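Tip: read the tokens left to right.
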């Protein structure tokens, strides 16, 4: 009766056709610029800005940002938030954008290792996804375990395992229950409408920065 879609690149035309066929569609997690469609997303830019700002307030000055080379809206927002925080504080951005197909091939760790080797002056690292954080922590453990405690570390998207690391890993947590509730609050009325283009809901939710040991001043 309706679709909740986490859109990948190349699917924009398909979504447009669903809307033209008067089928309810809600985009989850990300959206397409210029496409008038219902969506439920988080404020990625503000979440990333706040996380970077937290590191800066804890005296970290040379923060590396590890992300994917992606045009997807959520990843773009995270990059922009990091860059805005560093710029507003007069700091230099240090960004690693790993091609997603290289991550799929299992080469993400290699890129992160080279990035760390080339930026020996980094005092903190902010990973744009939890799987990138996992790869980064593996690289540190395998090559220089001392850095896990010396660097400030934040991961975007919490993971239960982050609580039991030593140190425990600070993370940006998405409001999963609120996201799923909002999806259904938007979808159920849509299913009753004769014209799904009558109104368009764009819901933006806030995240929570869960502060643990890894991001506190050393």
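Filled-in amino acids:
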């Amino acid at each position: 009766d309706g679709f909740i879609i986490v859109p990948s690149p190349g699917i924009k035309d398909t979504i447009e056709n669903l809307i033209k066929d008067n089928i309810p569609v809600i985009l989850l997690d990300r959206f397409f610029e210029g496409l008038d469609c219902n969506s439920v997303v988080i404020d990625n830019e503000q979440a990333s800005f706040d996380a970077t700002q937290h590191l800066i307030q804890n005296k970290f000055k040379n923060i590396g940002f590890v992300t994917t080379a992606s045009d997807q809206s959520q990843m773009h927002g995270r990059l922009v938030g990091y860059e805005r925080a560093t710029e507003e504080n007069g700091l230099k951005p240090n960004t690693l954008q790993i091609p997603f197909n290289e991550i799929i091939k299992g080469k993400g760790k290699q890129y992160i290792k080279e990035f760390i080797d080339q930026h020996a002056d980094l005092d903190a690292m902010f990973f744009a996804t939890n799987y990138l954080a996992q790869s980064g922590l593996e690289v540190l453990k395998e090559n220089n375990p001392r850095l896990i405690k010396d660097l400030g570390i934040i991961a975007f998207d919490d993971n239960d395992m982050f609580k039991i690391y030593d140190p425990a890993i600070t993370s940006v947590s998405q409001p999963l229950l609120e996201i799923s509730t909002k999806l259904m609050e938007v979808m159920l009325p849509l299913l009753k409408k004769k014209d799904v283009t009558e109104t368009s809901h764009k819901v933006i939710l806030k995240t929570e920065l869960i502060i643990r040991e890894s991001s506190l001043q050393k």
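The helical segments are 12-20, 44-57, 73-88, 100-104, 108-118, 130-143, 146-150, 176-192. Residues 176-192 form the longest helix (17 residues).
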